């Protein structure tokens, strides 16, 4: 949020102007958790990280690494450590600013596990059995499903409720968990007294979707079978350029934005537009009468430059000790808020005697 005038308090975000009449103006609070279970790719950047970058100016942002959620399925300690460090360094390299957003590790703030248990005891078996992730895995007869996977939605509820978040930006697959969070918060407020803010899922304002470069009908994803379809943020930039050059397009041969009949081309145009800020129509008009090869060359170069710059910042951050510093400061800020809330909860439920 920008302050437009020094004399009188007028503030603006992309779509709203606030005029402050006395008192203090408070920003709405937004919270999101990211599971450190794999590599980040261009889809994550365009669909999520670049959106967070925008949100950090408009909201009071809390972003945490959901490492307690990551162990609901087996993961090696060394992988979890590396994923966590990489994730924080990449988020910072992508432009998340710790002076605007509070970035922290879930396990550094013990109130998450504490309220997680309370929320588990507020949940009914039937409610958790209806959660799709657990339901799907059970239906498939998967072996080794942990009790943690079953009770992770109440932990996610705790993550959100500790901070009185107004908004939780999530993908559609996570909306059900935010709905459960609302139910649990209302149940607690009703059973004890008003304690938690009822959060809202934010699924409408998510960023554009990026599709696989090899199968543009599927989304770009870390678990995709063909690595040529996904550009990792830590891919060698020259290899990433090759992936763009060999991206599947069509035989129509006309450069226009038509996601229906030319999904591969539309996907490439989206990538170019988001990374450079140039509107799609403008790119299309520059390429009137030209071929796909030429366009791919430009986009390949855009991706090459984007990854080169990003990885330079990432490497610098990793070696500078900045990750530890940001997480320490983030844990302090988050603990202050979360501990206050858990003390209130402990009093209400009768733990504090
Ligand atoms: P998986 O392969 O396990 O489904 P993923 O690669 O799809 O994982 P997630 O960890 O599920 O990634 O997503 C993290 C965030 O990135 C979410 O906010 C999600 O909406 C966003 N995201 C993931 N893939 C894309 C994509 N292809 N386009 C746009 N946004 C995406
Ligand atoms: N369950 C989410 C990660 C997550 C989260 C949260 C997201 C854990 N706690 C709180 C938003 C708010 C996932 O699997 N992506």
Structure explained in plain terms:
This protein has 353 residues and is mainly alpha-helical. The protein starts with a strand and ends with a helix. Helix 3 (77-93) crosses helix 12. The strands form three sheets. It has a three-stranded antiparallel beta sheet, with no helix packed on it. Strands 4-5-6 form a three-stranded parallel beta sheet. A two-stranded parallel sheet has the order 7-8. The mean pLDDT is 92. It is 52% helix and 9% strand. The chain is globular. The longest helix has 29 residues, at 292-320. The structure holds adenosine-5'-triphosphate and L-tryptophanamide (LTN). Adenosine-5'-triphosphate is lined by residues 43-44, 46-48, 171, 209-210, 219-223.
Radius of gyration: 22 Å
Distance between the termini: 43 Å
Shape: globular
The helix content, as a percent range, equals 40-55%
Query: Quick one: biggest sheet?
Result: 3 strands, antiparallel
Strand segment count: 8
Beta percentage is 5-15%
Number of helical segments? 13
Strand order of the largest sheet: 1-2-3
Mean pLDDT: 92
Small molecules held by this entry: adenosine-5'-triphosphate, L-tryptophanamide
Name the helix and strand elements from N-terminus to C-terminus, one letter apiece: EEEEHEHHEHHHHEHEHHHHH
**Uncertain residue segments:** none
Class of secondary structure makeup: mainly alpha
């Amino acid at each position: 949020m920008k302050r437009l005038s020094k004399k009188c308090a007028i503030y603006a975000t992309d779509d709203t102007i606030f005029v402050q009449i006395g008192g203090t103006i408070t920003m709405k609070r937004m919270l999101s958790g990211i599971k450190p279970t794999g590599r980040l790719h261009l889809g994550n950047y365009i669909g999520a990280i670049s959106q967070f970058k925008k949100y950090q100016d408009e909201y009071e942002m809390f972003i945490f690494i959901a490492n307690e959620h990551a162990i609901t399925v087996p993961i090696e300690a060394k992988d979890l450590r590396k994923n966590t460090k990489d994730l924080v360094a990449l988020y910072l390299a992508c432009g998340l600013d710790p002076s605007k957003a509070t970035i922290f590790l879930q396990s550094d703030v013990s109130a998450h596990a504490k309220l997680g248990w309370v929320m588990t005891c507020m949940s009914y078996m039937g409610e958790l059995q209806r959660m799709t992730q657990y339901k799907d895995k059970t239906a498939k007869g998967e072996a080794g499903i942990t009790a943690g996977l079953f009770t992770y939605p109440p932990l996610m509820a705790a993550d959100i409720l500790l901070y009185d978040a107004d908004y939780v930006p999530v993908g559609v697959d996570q909306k059900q968990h935010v709905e459960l969070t609302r139910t649990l918060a209302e149940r607690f407020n009703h059973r004890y007294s008003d304690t938690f803010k009822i959060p809202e899922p934010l699924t409408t304002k998510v960023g554009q979707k990026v599709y696989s470069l090899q199968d543009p009908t599927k989304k770009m994803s870390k678990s995709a079978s063909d690595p040529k379809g996904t550009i990792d943020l830590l891919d060698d930039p020259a290899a990433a350029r090759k992936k763009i050059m060999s991206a599947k397009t069509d035989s129509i041969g006309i450069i226009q934005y038509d996601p229906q009949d030319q999904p591969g081309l539309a996907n490439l145009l989206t990538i170019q537009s988001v990374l450079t800020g140039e509107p799609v129509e403008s790119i299309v008009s520059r390429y009137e009468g030209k071929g796909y090869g030429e366009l791919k060359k430009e986009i390949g170069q855009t991706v090459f430059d984007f990854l080169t710059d990003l990885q330079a910042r990432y490497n610098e951050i990793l070696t500078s000790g900045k990750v530890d510093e940001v997480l320490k400061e983030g844990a302090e800020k988050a603990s202050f808020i979360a501990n206050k809330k858990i003390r209130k909860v402990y009093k209400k439920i009768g733990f504090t005697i």
